[in-house]
Amino acid sequence: MSSADIIAPTLTSLIVPTTVDLSTGDTGLTLAASASDDLSGVNKLVVYFDNTLSYRHTLNSEGDYTNTAFLGLYGIYDSWEDGSSIQTFGIGETNNSGTYTVERVSITDQQGNARTYYTEELDSMGINTTVDLIGSTQDVTAPLLTSLTIPTTIDLRTGIYDSWEDGSSTQTFGIGETNNSGTYTVERVSITDQQGNARTYYTEELDSMGINTSVEFFGTEIPEPEPEPEPEPEPEPEPEPEPEPEPEPEPEPEPEPEPEPEPEPEPEPAPEPEPEPEPEPEPEPEPEPEPEPEPEPEPEIIDDDGNLWDSSISIGSNIIEAEEAQLYRSYYGALGRLPDEEGYNWWLNEIQEGRHDLNSMAAGFIDSEEFVTLADSDADDIISNEELITHIYSGVFGREPDPSGFDFWVEALTSGEKTQAGAFIDMTQSNEYVELTYITVSNMLFLEGL
Hints:
Blueprint: E1 2-3, E2 10-15, E3 19-21, E4 27-36, E5 42-56, E6 66-73, E7 84-91, E8 98-109, E9 114-118, H1 119-124, E10 130-134, E11 182-185, E12 188-192, E13 198-202, H2 203-208, E14 214-217, E15 220-221, E16 300-302, E17 312-315, E18 318-320, H3 322-335, H4 341-352, H5 358-367, H6 369-375, H7 385-397, H8 403-414, H9 420-428, H10 431-443
Parallel strand pairs: 1-15, 3-10
Antiparallel strand pairs: 2-4, 4-7, 5-6, 5-7, 5-8, 8-9, 8-10, 11-14, 12-13, 16-17, 17-18
């Protein structure tokens, strides 16, 4: 019987070169690492530098260079099956010369458990954390566009694994043996056509269609927690002391003889009656209190499927439509300010007229001079993936990105799984941000004088 994997892997060694000489052209930078994991096995190791590198995934490979601030051992060229992996990257000769420092190393197992080692800990393990690039031919000039051909038609009918062209598709997923045992329930199924029209089926409707909505995972053991120590027995109470006997009452003294009565005094003359006081005037009646004003209506998110990004917001009898709220959140999260009314109304009209949608609007924000000024930390007029994620985390969540979240987003952008506009939308329209800002959005205040 298998056990659930809940422990991150451990880095046991990492070799990073101290110098890469680019004077003769592209040169190899070899990373070699080993690690141990308790159950599912190592999945990947990523080394993050303090500056961007231009490289190919192997020394002799052809094609475009990748530009990121990290190099990853994903087990593609040398599997992690034996607990180690090695790969030689082709470092482009046009990189900037200088010292590149390893800021952190992240290692993840097949189950998704991850651990991050930072520079200080890597140094204490005897791992080199600086690479000197020397002899490069620096390229600091952007390219010039000389021509561009855009196709007139694109065929969107092909599926990934089994085309939907015949109206059906099938795919088998490999489920890891280290998942937790238990019942996994299908909450909803969403189906979308090529134009983006979608319908959602929930559990009850799926059941009525005769579709199974629960999957039982079994055969894994979750480690039981150690039993808590039994509490010590309470001491028995001490017996109460017996009451002392009450003293006998003393005999009552004999009564003394009553004294003879004194003669009554002569009555004094009755006093003259005092004049009655004049009645006080009745107080004037207090004015009735004015009725308290009715409380302002509370804003409310109108949602029917748990996905708040496309929800309207009601406040009393007024409704803020989903597209209005989406645009407002984009200003507030990406630019860190209230929208100016003129710009807001222009974008809203473009969206309502169908000339722009959420994706093209997000791309327009990212390309705007204001956004570039805010997010371009190295002032090269280009928003790198790292700069984009750092800026949006700050604007949306009000904090620096955590290492695991930062790594996830940058890898998704670098691999092409996500576009910058897609990441922009995912964060500014996330459930978390909708709930953080719906009261602000409901006020619909605008920046004046911009």
